[in-house]
Write a structure and sequence with these properties.
The protein is an alpha+beta fold. Strands 3-12-11-6-5-4-7 form a 7-stranded antiparallel β-sheet. Strands 13-18-17-16-15-14 form a 6-stranded antiparallel β-sheet, with helices on both faces. It has a 3-stranded antiparallel β-sheet with strand order 8-9-10. Helix 5 packs across helix 9. The mean pLDDT is 93. It binds FE2/S2 (inorganic) cluster (FES) and fe (ii) ion. The site of FE2/S2 (inorganic) cluster has 9 residues, from loops. This is Aromatic ring-hydroxylating dioxygenase subunit alpha.
Length: 380
């Protein structure tokens, strides 16, 4: 695959070819070799804090049930009854002692084992006494209070995938850990339906060349973003707030204390972090924003964005997150509209051989290498 063009004096890398953003076959390869082999972010540990609490979600075409057992172990299962395949649990969240299938009433324990089959089945004893008919388990690990799943047979430890990317971003692990995401709670969440390939959304988050053109509110808060140089690819660097900005909010006002655990040098800084394949984490002094991309098909993705705060602040009667929410909500809308501008032309003859990464965007090519190597296409 040709990945570079000659412009001026130097060789400048081209973007991926248009078909990489439209082809259902490529999308299937990405699902198989990237998403099925990676740890994927699906929720927060506090949502399933006590035995019997559960959440359900959909990942990689699979319905998933996540629950905590009586032994306090957190487990994820395919949310599929082993009898005739009905969705076992349809509620988005709840608490129960047993999962009973709505179709013929097979029931499963919190550990996924088959516990009950109606006696009218004739073979209920054989079924219940046989461990093979329990729910199919999916690998689950937590990382900073976030729940991650992995569909591969023998996944690497979650830290291998995630800590290595924190190291790339900060050069150490302590700064990120100080934000103590495990102690924060979601105060607001928004879901965006984006008509764009997941890679266009990742590429967009990784470059700030577009910031001065489409993000007036963001560049007002973080003036160095006007230069087009984000801080994501400068290890350890955060972007400083504009001098008259008190908080990362649409008004620039705010009087929440810094998150517990932060140091004075963390004040008035914003950090954006990409965790491939599908998560962005944004750190600010008084809240954290997470994005997770859920690829739907080669030309459509769902993005869930959560705004997390200190629960002690959330409990105060005057807690008001929307000033903060509005800032990144506008950034999201601006970004996703731009992603769609591109997606609609990925089938154009003009993009048959891709576009051009200008020097300021060159770091995106690491992401291209990761994608191409993962799906087995040659990188030149
Ligand atoms: S499909 Fe679940 S009990 Fe029949
Ligand atoms: Fe952006």
């Amino acid at each position: 695959m040709e990945q570079s063009v000659v412009i001026g004096k130097g060789k400048i890398r081209s973007t991926l070819k248009g078909e990489l953003y439209t082809s259902p076959e490529i999308f299937e390869l990405e699902k198989k070799y990237i998403f099925a082999e990676s740890w994927l972010f699906v929720g927060y540990e506090y949502e399933v804090a006590t035995p019997g609490q559960y959440i359900t979600t959909k990942v990689q075409d699979e319905n998933i049930l996540i629950t905590r057992g009586k032994d306090y172990v957190l487990r994820a299962f395919l949310n599929v009854c082993r009898h005739r395949g009905a969705t076992l649990c349809s509620e988005p969240s709840g608490k129960t002692g047993v999962f009973r299938c709505p179709y013929h009433s097979w029931s499963y324990g919190l550990d996924g084992s088959l516990r009950g089959v109606p006696k009218s089945s004739d073979c209920h004893e054989e079924l219940v006494n046989n461990d093979t008919y329990g729910l199919e388990e999916v690998h689950l690990q937590t990382w900073h209070g976030m729940i991650w799943l992995n569909f591969s047979e023998n996944p690497q430890p979650v830290e291998q995938q995630l800590d290595s990317q924190i190291m790339d971003r900060f050069g150490e692990l302590e700064t990120f850990a100080r934000y103590q995401i495990q102690n924060l709670r979601v105060a607001h969440s928004k879901t965006y339906d984006v008509k764009a390939n997941w890679k266009i959304i990742v590429e967009n988050f990784q470059e700030c060349y577009h910031c001065s053109a489409i993000h007036p509110e963001l560049t007002a808060a973080l003036p160095e973003f006007r230069s087009g140089i984000g801080t994501q690819n400068q290890p350890g660097l955060g972007a400083s707030f504009n001098q008259d900005v008190e908080a990362f909010s649409i008004s620039g006002k705010g009087n929440r204390p810094m998150l517990k655990g932060l140091l004075p040098e963390d004040d008035r800084l914003y950090y954006g972090i990409t965790i491939v394949p599908h998560v962005f984490i944004n750190l600010t002094p008084d809240h954290v924003i997470t994005h997770r991309i859920i690829p739907i098909n080669s030309e459509r993705s769902i993005v869930i964005c959560d705004w997390l705060f200190d629960p002690e602040e959330m409990a105060k009667p005057d807690f008001e997150p929307m000033d903060a929410v509005e800032l990144f909500h506008r950034v999201n809308e601006q970004d996703f509209e731009a992603c769609q501008w591109c997606q609609e032309n990925m089938r154009s003859k003009a993009y048959k051989n891709g576009g051009i990464l200008v020097p300021i965007e060159q770091h995106v090519s690491k992401f291209y290498d990761y994608v191409l190597e993962s799906i087995g296409l040659k990188v030149e």
